[in-house]
Protein 1
Amino acid sequence: MMYQNELKALKKAGRFRQRKIWDNTLIDFASNDYLGLANDKKQLNKALQLVDEYDTHAPKASMLVNGYHEIHERFETTLAQQNGFEEGLIVGSGFLANMALIEALVRKKDMLFMDEDYHASGMMATGLLSNRVILFKHNDPEDLEKKLKLYDSGRKIIAVEGVYSMSGMLCDREIFTLADKYEALIIVDEAHSSGVIGKNLLGIFEYYDIKPHDKHIKMGTLGKAYGSYGAYILANSQIISFLVNRGKPIIYSTAPSVIDTALALVNIEHVAQNSQKFYKKITKRHRIIKEQLNIEMYSLILPIEISSNAETLQIQTTLLAHNFLVGAIRQPTVTTPILRIIPRIGSSRENLLRLCQKLKER
């Protein structure tokens, strides 16, 4: 076989992965469905009723041909207004959004300063930028400023995450201050912070009480807190127009799914209308983790470091025997293997307490 040796090596290192359909009776503390919307049939029916108002329910072509649908436009307008940005842009996935932003915005004389723990999609995009990328130490404003001082010509662009997907750590507030000080554009990947933090669950900008301005760019996904699929970019109108004209994943991809966009739209409106209820439920789950495991949480990502890949998989298997599904994350996604636990609203507090007890027993 062509890749037999490589697959053997992955298995030996405990890094082999495969797709699996999990038993739907398992108690889900693994998925990024933070608010439990992925199985909300009422919301699904609302989305289908919305799509049924239009003659077309599929995108048919790229957005620049005739794939741009009224539901896409409604979604973009709604999300931009909610978050205080000038304009929005629907994109097929978070991976495509990061590829588009980084490949298009970092021009020949510009420099991109990216957190070393930024998502793999952003890291992959930097491969297209030659010598226009500088990585700074994870969530380290001091290291970032030291590197920002070295460059005077061209635009400076900073790329960070609102909540880092493996650690659950919030982006340091000082990084926003540095972006302003050095007049840098800042791309904030809010995949794991939108719908999770802030009093109205609008993400890191709201959490830090930062009013978006022309140099702020917010990117996020729809397959996590918002219970659908796809992604978005929020920015000033000039940046959005530039991306529409130069972002290859936007220009050359079929327009995003109309049905998924409709589901994201009704879910975003639902979260906005019920943000205080969701906020209280998230706070109660934080309290359980603090009381049971003595860990302070600020997002809905709880990483527990494990000494080896083999032990990580073994603990996951033990928890499965008790009907709990948690993530077993190994290299190269993380440096040190972790159990990645999501105390999501879709799973009850009683079950979260039971899971905490099992974790303490291990």
Protein 2
Amino acid sequence: MQDLVNLAAELSGKPITYTNLPQDDYAGVLVSGGFPKELADALADNNAGALRGAWHTASDDLTRILGRPATGPRQVMADALAALGQH
């Protein structure tokens, strides 16, 4: 997550900070923001999994499904910022 925040800060030219909350605290923040508890728990669990490396894969499934190379995070963020007039 910190890598994505660093990338967003670099591309936007704006300082961005990231604070990783413990799983239960993160779920609590989501609930306090209006998320149903079950969804908040699932999102917090997903975030905890990402921190453990659960999102990492060496699979080429996405490339095969798309029929082209996947767009990397740098390009996705740059395109999103450009669409918002931020870059």
Protein 3
Amino acid sequence: MRIFDRYLRQWGLEPDGAPIRTATSRLLPVRQGAAAAMLKIARVEEERQGARVLAWWAGEGAARVLAQDGDALLMERAQGPGSLAAMARRGADDPEATRILCGAVARLHARRGRPPPGLVPLDDWFRDLWPAAERHGGVLRDSARRARALLAEPRQPGVLHGDIHHGNVLDFGARGWLAIDPKGLHGERGFDYANLFCNPSRRTALARGRFERRLDIVAAASGIEPRRLLQWVLAWAGLSAVWMLQDDADPAGTLQVAARAAAALAV
């Protein structure tokens, strides 16, 4: 708890739950008066970059930043009962969960009347895919080929969240469904829709007919041509699988999503 003490005093906060430790940050649920908030302290530059983008969104489609000081960020905390992951697991509610995710992405991509903070180019985000595709081949090579083509000719580039999935869009009650934990990237907007096809779990993402229904919903909601979306799904799933291999995690489900996208593109 010592890491939080300075900010608890500085911002008049009271702990409201157990601290949370991740590989990239330290978090503590708190209250500021009657308001529920989350105190987050970044441990890596990726989290600092995300905090800058979260503040730039100014509560429009994302959690509102209440205070910021160096590595520390205080943001509003989701209190609503809804869960997109639970909706997806129920199966019948997955289409609505997918539409909610698409709506959240659209709000984040809306034009702002202010310049964004410095962003990470999407090309840099994919740097681990190239050597892995050469080493492992297979569907990773297909992912790399598609990714290179997409990155060479981006369409409608802008500020990207970078990690849209069922656990990063939360129920904020009267404020609606809002995004948390952005990465702060710049590139084609289609990239932000790709990760939802891999989530919230292997079982739900690969349930019979799920991939195809999601593709129809996302294409209609985003206005992006289905084939372009499939290319982004293939590119992203390959990159995600590479990161899983680096972390000694099992990439089987993500590779199956990549293979499904590759098969659809081959038709």
